[in-house]
Design a protein that fits this description.
Elements (H helix, E strand, L loop, with lengths): L4 E10 L3 E2 L2 E4 L5 H4 L10 E2 L22 E2 L15 E2 L3 E13 L5 E9 L7 E4 L2 E4 L12 E2 L2 E2 L14 E4 L4 E9 L1
Parallel strand pairs: 3-10
Antiparallel strand pairs: 1-7, 2-6, 4-5, 7-8, 8-14, 9-13, 11-12
């Protein structure tokens, strides 16, 4: 007999959705400059896919190896690399609730409820900066770099200013909701 107590939980597991790295150029990099067509774009060039990583390394500043990715150059056919080669981070969320039902009178009942979302308070990465910005198709200098050589770029330490390859958002942290309900 539970004496009006109820405990329940939900565990949600999600695999990371696949994504394709993107690119843009600050100058001379429109579709017509790259592929010759205004309607058809090139794709990022991945020099060594084996060292790229999965797309979710656990390092919030470098979810994949950005050094192996460049933009397409003039005369691109748009088939330099595959699509959906990286995967977002998988998520695991445990939610729980506790309910206590108390009879006050024959027709009056009190229900007290505690809901806890993301019980372990785990960080769940939900977005990654996957688009590189290069100066132009001939220099391939990365304009939105997360690292200056081997040190973090100090102007790109927050999710709003994150550079290429860094995490930009996370799901909500632990939320607690209390509820009292009288039924009559």
């Amino acid at each position: 007999m539970t004496s009006g107590w109820q405990l329940s939980s939900i565990l949600s597991l999600h695999t990371g959705l696949p994504y394709t790295p993107g690119y843009s150029y600050q100058s001379n990099g429109g579709n017509v400059n790259i592929t010759g067509s205004p309607d058809y774009a090139g794709r990022d060039v991945i020099s060594n896919p084996a060292t790229l990583g999965s797309g979710c390394s656990g390092n919030r500043y470098s979810e994949f190896n950005t050094a192996n990715i460049t933009g397409p150059t003039y005369g691109s056919m748009g088939m330099e690399s595959g699509r959906d080669i990286l995967h977002n981070c998988p998520t695991r969320e445990l939610d729980m609730n506790i309910v206590r039902r108390i009879s006050i009178k024959e027709r009056v009942k009190l229900e007290l409820r505690l809901d806890v979302f993301n019980l372990p308070n785990a960080v769940q990465i939900s977005s990654i900066s996957s688009s590189a910005t290069f100066n132009n198709p001939t220099s391939m200098t990365l304009a939105n770099n997360q690292y200056n050589g081997t040190t973090l770029n100090p102007s790109r330490l927050t999710p709003a200013t994150a550079g290429f390859g860094a995490a930009t958002a996370a799901s909500a942290m632990r939320n607690i909701q209390l509820e009292a309900r009288i039924q009559f």
